[in-house]
Write a structure and sequence with these properties.
Oligomer: single chain
Shape: elongated
Number of domains: 1
Number of helices: 2
Radius of gyration: 17 Å
Structural class: alpha+beta
Helix content: 10-25%
CATH topology: SH3 type barrels
Strand content: 35-45%
Length: 134
């Protein structure tokens, strides 16, 4: 039985943390999560404030959907955080995580964009919030 999709932060027992679209499923008596477009988010602190670095959870596959056993998860939290949802949506659209890349697409160069750092305008908004709240 499959439940409704939702955004969530997932912390695994091994310490990994991801943000993804998630749905619950039960197959053959086992509790599972279907995790779609999982990303990792790292906060970056600089002299000028902070930003975020967003990357795909698994970097060596073109798959966008994964099955995770519930007993591998330490905690899960449904998210309504619009900032996180926008980062997730923007990243998956910009880098086409949900679309399959060609196996022959190996001649492309590695760029800074592959470790997407939030845009200048978004970073400016964050800094203004920090300034206005202090």
């Amino acid at each position: 039985m499959m439940e409704e999709d939702f955004y969530a932060s997932i912390k695994f027992k091994n310490g990994e943390e991801i943000f993804a679209i998630v749905s619950y499923s039960e197959e053959e008596g086992e509790d599972l999560l279907i995790v779609t477009n999982p990303i990792t988010v790292k906060e970056l602190k600089t002299r000028h404030g902070h930003g975020y670095k967003v990357e795909p959870w698994l970097k060596t596959t073109d798959e966008d959907m994964f099955i995770v056993k519930m007993n591998d998860i330490l905690t899960i939290s449904q998210s309504n955080n619009m900032e996180m949802i926008k980062m997730h949506t923007s990243f998956t659209k910009k880098f086409g995580i949900s679309s399959k890349r060609s196996l022959n697409d190996t001649d492309s160069e590695i760029t800074r964009d592959m470790g997407y750092v939030s845009s200048v305008s978004r970073f400016k908004e964050i800094l203004e919030k920090i300034y206005n709240n202090s």
